[in-house]
């Protein structure tokens, strides 16, 4: 298959990876060398979980072999080294997304980060009612008459916590709808985001459609309303060069396991003043200044949100992952994935009886093209059957509703199949997937 042409600028194209370099990159990922069902593994499920390069695996192992100790709790040499590694990791990851280290809170994943913000806002309402906390904390209280706004594109992790916050506080949950294709109806956004809006939460990149949100326009609406902005950067942090401060969001979350790091580690960015004003999410050891039998006083951020024993080795490994990504070049990764996304979209859309979700190859929504991701529906074949057929050919994809049931329902579907690429994906991987997908309907007797 000829490589799909995209309107990528010459400057971007010059920075893009190419197949020869990607083949060298693949050598850093041991899992990609194996065969599955007698076929070379074609891993197209990085949107769910990415693979790990040796440098990341070695960083975590080296921590356990040389520096394993509790952080912020001991004066012995191992504890000092562990604390230094832990905080150095925070600085590396914070720098990767353009923020200061004390604005970055370690979490288990992005879902925990969103829950942290939502539940801390609920606690702020309780504190305000009981006269606890300063003026900055009381200003964060949410109650009846207030509104929380999301979009119809959201992953459940950026929907359900806000549903629960609305339930607990008496606020109203509203959403910006999408059209029949899944494009945000920005013309309706101004009637949804208004003077009652206290929070606007949205995904930077759709995990189903691969589209980028119009961040500037949405942030401007929130600023006019005086609302907080929460950005789900799970599908953008691994693939784009991010500067969260330049995006002017108040909070943002991302997960390590989608960006070459292990599971069990993620991060929450928050503006320093907001983090210090938020009540803590989990309470216990290591996040306090003074404790009596009646009450406790809490440390400033980020420690006020890091109760108990932390994810130390995972944080060290995430720092190794962002170093790997930076050394490869985030602009080059994005340009390569833009090409792969166009190739996926063009190939899927060309197949009879296969419906591509989201924009077609080269088509821009909200001023941006899709990332290296394509979800689709095969007429007459359930998504799970599609996935099993592809797996028999050694091709790993995601099937189901991708934790986005409302979006699938809006598109008239209960499930879809999704192929997602990353920096270790070659054009040969994409072509093997497209060749196999072209055989699915005939295999299941669904072709006319």
From TrEMBL:
Lineage, uppermost ranks: Bacteria, Bacillati, Actinomycetota, Actinomycetes, Micrococcales
- Which organism is the protein's source? Sinomonas halotolerans
Q: Which NCBIfam families match?
A: sufS
InterPro entries per the UniProt record, alphabetical = Aminotrans_V_dom, Aminotrans_V_PyrdxlP_BS, Cys_dSase_SufS, PyrdxlP-dep_Trfase, PyrdxlP-dep_Trfase_major, PyrdxlP-dep_Trfase_small
Q: Which reaction does it catalyse?
A: (sulfur carrier)-H + L-cysteine = (sulfur carrier)-SH + L-alanine
Which Enzyme Commission number(s) are listed? 2.8.1.7
Q: What is this protein called?
A: Cysteine desulfurase
Q: Which UniProt keywords apply?
A: Pyridoxal phosphate, Transferase
A family per Pfam: Aminotran_5
Family, according to the entry, reads as follows: Belongs to the class-V pyridoxal-phosphate-dependent aminotransferase family. Csd subfamily.
Function, in words:
Catalyzes the removal of elemental sulfur and selenium atoms from L-cysteine, L-cystine, L-selenocysteine, and L-selenocystine to produce L-alanine.
Which metal ions or organic cofactors does this protein require, according to UniProt?
Answer: pyridoxal 5'-phosphate
The record ties this protein, via PROSITE patterns, to: AA_TRANSFER_CLASS_5
Give the Aminotransferase class V domain ranges: 42-433
Keyword Transferase present in the record's keywords: the answer is yes
